[in-house]
Amino acid sequence: MCLVRLPQSAAVARLAARTTMKCWGLSEDLTADAELIACELVTNAIRHSGSRNVQEPGHCRLTLERPASDAVRIEVSDGSMTRPAKREPGEDEPNGRGLILVAALAADWGVTHRPGGKTVWALLRAQP
C-alpha cells in the first residue's frame, strides 16, 4: 500500500494492518502488535525520510506478508538512505520510543538498503 508521508497516514497504516490480520484470521494479540508496528514504522518514515515540504511530502510503502503460517512480516519502504537507530529517550521526552517498541514486539527486525532508499522490516511470530 502506497502512503503519502503525512501524519494521518499512520492511522491508515494501523487500519490496513488490522484489516489484513483479521482477513488472515490471526489472533487479536498478534493483530494489536502488527497495528502498533505498522504505525511506528510509517511514523518513522513520515518524520525521518526526506522532504518536510507539505506541498510535496513524498511517499512510503507499507507491505504485510505471511512468509510462514505462524509469521507476519511488516515492511515500510521509503526513499531515504538514512538508517533508523534506536534511541534512549529521557523520561520527559515525548518521542523516540518507536524502534524500542518494534524491537520488544517483533521476533526480529532490521533494515534492508535498496537502490533509492531502504526498507525497515519487522517479523512477528504467532505464539503456539
TrEMBL record:
Name by which UniProt lists this protein: ATP-binding protein
Gene3D superfamilies in the cross-refs: Histidine kinase-like ATPase, C-terminal domain (3.30.565.10)
UniProt KW Transferase keyword: yes
Database matches in SUPFAM superfamilies: ATPase domain of HSP90 chaperone/DNA topoisomerase II/histidine kinase
Stretch list, region Disordered: 77-96
One of the Pfam families matching this protein, by short name: HATPase_c_2
UniProt keywords, alphabetically: ATP-binding, Kinase, Nucleotide-binding, Serine/threonine-protein kinase, Transferase
Keyword Nucleotide-binding: yes
Residues spanning the signal sequence: none
PANTHER family (UniProt xref): ANTI-SIGMA-F FACTOR RSBW, ANTI-SIGMA-F FACTOR RSBW-RELATED
GO function terms (MF aspect): ATP binding
InterPro entries assigned: Anti-sigma-factor_SerPK, HATPase_C_sf, HATPase_dom
Record-annotated Histidine kinase/HSP90-like ATPase domain positions: 7-122
